[in-house]
Amino acid sequence: MNPFDPTLLRQLAATHGTPLWVYDAATIRARIAELRAFDTIRYAQKANSNLHLLRLMREAGVVVDAVSLGEIERALAAGYRPSREGRSEIVFTADVLDRATLAKVVAEGIPVNAGSIDMLHQLGTASPGHRVWLRINPGFGHGHSNKTNTGGEHSKHGIWHADLPAALDALRKHRLQLIGLHMHIGSGVDYHHLQQVCDAMVEMVARIGQPIEAISAGGGLSIPYRAGEPRIDTAHYHALWDAARRRIAQAQGRPLQLEIEPGRFLVAEAGVLLAEVRATKSMGSRFFALVDAGFNDLARPALYGSHHGIELLAADASPRAPRPTVVAGPLCESGDVFTQGEGGVVLSRELPEARVGDLLVFHDAGAYGASMSSNYNSRPLTAEVLVDGDAARLIRRRQSIGELLALEALQQTQS
Ligand code: LLP
């Protein structure tokens, strides 16, 4: 699905330059609406933590997950409070508590979703009585690639299911208050694993031996990156989790809340990366279009072999025959190719013949795009624009090279 009008994208590129991230507020709101059956939608902001998107989420009644001190500060800056009207607006989810983050969650009273027993001891020592979730690794996982599989014995995430008694001992020792259990076994949904994880949740809660307030289904809801891929059936997804919730409520004789923690689902389809073709060349039988965005901007193809739809917006009306094209970036590294499969195999994509000055639109780039960008090759972070109805606002200006260099200025020291 493409929420963007080519004329608008051309205008935005002319106004703000390229590369440029462009997001559509209406698409985000539509995805939020699809998940309203859940009691709580907790946005995994690692997917895209721009403050203005966080504010949009907050206005739509979505709470937030944070995985670092920086993400906690972003949530606070966007107006989230650790707890408001009895619900935790910010939860810190991680497998380690670095010292600065520990001090922050204690000072602000931010509930912690603990992925290791060491976290429970460190938190409990600093803040007896703190509110916690337990993130459980049920012993299996799945993901769109091995790097996004977050369950099973090869994953570093969560408290191993058989270690639940030790986690409960740590809670008792420090009088930590248990909010509930959380499971996130990977990104990308398959219904077989979903039923398995729902069953594992019911079984783990039964082992706790005390009522809990909530369960969290984690994130991982997929989106169709390729044309023709099916969309996830959110009603079915909710129904499976709701059935688990009802089984738990019946067993503990008390109702409980059902949370979901999506990142990608809320923002991926709402964002594109715009880049300009700056050179074309043929290498033997291959035709290359080289653009001004690289894997420092959009890392997913280079990192996971991920597929993003690519659309060409021609700079002129001249006829363009279709041509298999390798789309690559400006970085001084051979892996800087957007059309690649898993393992780095270079692929061609059939596009109208690209010419210098054309724009390429990388679709479904709103999640894990800007948030995974880097300064590799000393390239500044790219600007971001949010389109909301008729208004297009610059929600992050382009970083300047001066800002990059300033970080390395030597401090004046007093002798
Ligand atoms: N909750 C937890 C505890 C997570 O670790 C994650 C993602 C999410 C929720 C959100 O998952 P989502 O709904 O977005 O699939 N960079 C990779 C994805 C890494 C996901 C890490 N954890 C990518 O570009 O596909």
From TrEMBL:
PROSITE patterns: ODR_DC_2_1, ODR_DC_2_2. It catalyses: meso-2,6-diaminopimelate + H(+) = L-lysine + CO2. Its EC number is 4.1.1.20. SUPFAM superfamilies: Alanine racemase C-terminal domain-like, PLP-binding barrel. Homodimer. One of its GO terms (molecular function) is diaminopimelate decarboxylase activity. Pathway: Amino-acid biosynthesis; L-lysine biosynthesis via DAP pathway; L-lysine from DL-2,6-diaminopimelate: step 1/1. It comes from the Bacteria. It comes from Pseudaquabacterium terrae. Pyridoxal 5'-phosphate binds at residues 220, 261-264, 368. Pfam families: Orn_Arg_deC_N, Orn_DAP_Arg_deC. The keyword Amino-acid biosynthesis applies. This is Diaminopimelate decarboxylase.
